[in-house]
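The protein record now logged underneath.
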Amino acid sequence: MPPHFAIIGSGALACLFASRLQAVAPVTLIGTWPEQMAVLARDGLLVEELDGRTTHHAIRTLPATAAPPTPWADVAIVLVKSTQTAEAAERIAACLAPHGRVLTLQNGLGNREILAERLGAERVWAGSTTTGGTMIAPGRVRHAGAGPTHLPLGWEDVAELFNAAGLVCHLTADVEQLLWGKLVLNAAINPLSALLRQPNGFLGENALVRELMFLAAEEAAAVASAVGIALPYGDVRGRLLALTQATAANHSSMLQDVLRGAPTEIEAITGQVIKYGRQYAIPTPMNDLFWRLMGE
């Protein structure tokens, strides 16, 4: 019998993962966005697919404010913003079965540690996803990119379900490498796109902006090297250009947050680059500038 998944979050990626996984396993989405939760419960979810189709999915929901039933979740997948991680840990504690496991697929660094402090390190793992999604309106999400998801060794059963659900998934022995690899890219793209109010493609097309993006990424890569992380790609600039081209129309998650007046993940992304840079005496002037301009 497949595990019962609790998807923690109600944003674009949480909805996308719920819509896919429910085809192969029981799924319940737990979220705090009242309007979104109401629309999902009443009308279901509309997904604008990569091929231009719009598909409809009935989503089982449980508002975060509802009294949870007896702990039922076999696997909790955390897809909230990093600013909500501590709150998410409390919701997971209320619904996670005694044998249950927790997987964070969030952006940035530090989320696993926050979850582990409340739930126990032996129950919490981190993975990485490059799947892209944009929230169009409550109850409507655009699938913005079919990037793979990487899970740690020992999660073979869940990886098999992900692949069966159409979520391309691989196992990795080095999750830290992937987390830092994603952090370097996010540190360059997310703050810059949010500050300029521009989609990803613009960052690679404008010569001046492109250079700022490269500088931020190279600082983050230098920090990763000092920490002892070998990034999963050799050419940082080439990887950035390929990514901005592949996701040209996509609004980064930080830009989406800014446009709707929500707190951003600047602390979990740029803040972590700066923190480790100071710890290892690596200058990070461009990341420092992004931090100050974001005003958080």
About this structure: The chain has a mean pLDDT of 95. The chain has two domains: 5-173, 176-294.
